[in-house]
Amino acid sequence: MQKRKKAKSMTQERSIVHMDLDTFFVSCERRIDSRLNNMPVLIGGTSDRGVVASCSYEARKFGVHSAMPMRMAKQLCPEAIVLRGNSGVYTKFSKEVTDVIQETVPLYEKSSIDEFYIDLTGMDRFFGCHQLATELRTKIMKETGLPISFGLSVNKTVSKIATGEAKPNNQLKVDSGLEKGFLAPLSVRKIPMVGEKTYNALCDLGIKRIKTVQEMPVNMMERVFGKHGITLWKKANGVDNSPIVPYHERKSISTERTFDKDTIDVYKLKGIITAMTENLIYQLRRGNKLTACVTFKIRYSDFQTYTKQKMIPYSSADHIILPIVMDLYKTLYQRRLLVRLVGVRFSHLVSGGHQINMFEDDEKILNLYHAMDKMRERFGDRAVIRASGMGAKSISRWNPFTGEPPPLLANRRQ
Ligand SMILES: [Mg+2]
């Protein structure tokens, strides 16, 4: 009896909640200006070539959706109020929500600026997970004034899809054992890993509903999509063992440079810091990540080490992050001593770079980054660099978000 009990707890079924703020940017704007309530609102690049980053449900009725050219959205819904986004405001509200979650539950993952996974496993003994999640949702809405939806199930994939089905401003529980049936009638597009490319490939095969994937043999999916196909098949069948990654353990990315010969050459230092930072920001963008915390580190020839960090609105833009790093360097580099090492770190990373970048920058800068990143992708990360960073040697080709280890040690000599 005892043994059986133990075995059960080891394979304990999980209770995973996915919470997603409804039309987050729009809701933030409404918190600031209640006249926007019940109105069609578009947020994004406001120029002719801008793109919709977020839109209210009132605008969606007209066929508007995010990532649509702003010009087309305005044509579909001429009475819409068009706003240029403000990442500082959204970062602040995102933090408010994060704080409520943090003080309520022991284990959560912040997966993007407006999305969270919460592990309530084992907490059902006293209250029931559904009730706990419902209370948390009510608390968030009461304390932040922002509408939020959730899905509850045994894993991340099913919960995220459930949230999507619950929206707007609602909640949905998928009972254990009913995952397959819940997913079956839905479009394959609803599976989180299915982007445009995979969706089109599935459509070419005549696969529209998740049910069809469920009925296919897994090795057929593997033959067509490789490893990706196996994961896709598992998700379609409601299987997903991926864990909740605690927010504080969320990966940061960093780069350091130790000099062969300690230096006091300010031009050289600045050049290297610029190159290091640009490369690290490029890696953020490539991983579709944003950072909210920038740290700079300097070590002198006597091994005294100083670090300084700054919280910033979520960003992955050179023209925002680079000046902050240079400021940190200027405030830290006071000793006029030989420098042995410099380092840059980005932490508090979340996903969702595309969304923020849609309005953060004016179109010209955005297109410039896009073009620069494309060249780096094709010709290597040293293909495009600022002139001031030309003195520095290559930093890294490694993409920290693909899960593959770096080909070189982080601490390279120059
Ligand atoms: Mg959302």
Automatic annotation (TrEMBL):
Compartments it resides in: Cytoplasm
Cofactor(s), by name: Mg(2+)
SUPFAM superfamilies, alphabetized: DNA/RNA polymerases, Lesion bypass DNA polymerase (Y-family), little finger domain
Keyword DNA repair: yes
Enzyme Commission number(s): 2.7.7.7
Keyword Lipid biosynthesis attributed: no
Residues with site note (Substrate discrimination): F25
Principal location class: cytoplasm
Keywords of this entry: Cytoplasm, DNA damage, DNA repair, DNA replication, DNA-binding, DNA-directed DNA polymerase, Magnesium, Metal-binding, Mutator protein, Nucleotidyltransferase, Transferase
UmuC domain location: 16-195
One Pfam family recorded for the sequence: IMS_C
Active site: E115
Catalytic activity: DNA(n) + a 2'-deoxyribonucleoside 5'-triphosphate = DNA(n+1) + diphosphate
Cofactor note: Binds 2 magnesium ions per subunit.
Annotated positions binding Mg(2+): D20, D114
PANTHER family (alphabetical): DNA POLYMERASE KAPPA, DNA REPAIR POLYMERASE UMUC / TRANSFERASE FAMILY MEMBER
Main function: Poorly processive, error-prone DNA polymerase involved in untargeted mutagenesis. Copies undamaged DNA at stalled replication forks, which arise in vivo from mismatched or misaligned primer ends. These misaligned primers can be extended by PolIV. Exhibits no 3'-5' exonuclease (proofreading) activity. May be involved in translesional synthesis, in conjunction with the beta clamp from PolIII.
Similarity-based family: Belongs to the DNA polymerase type-Y family.
Oligomeric form and interacting partners: Monomer.
Protein name: DNA polymerase IV
Provenance organism: Namhaeicola litoreus
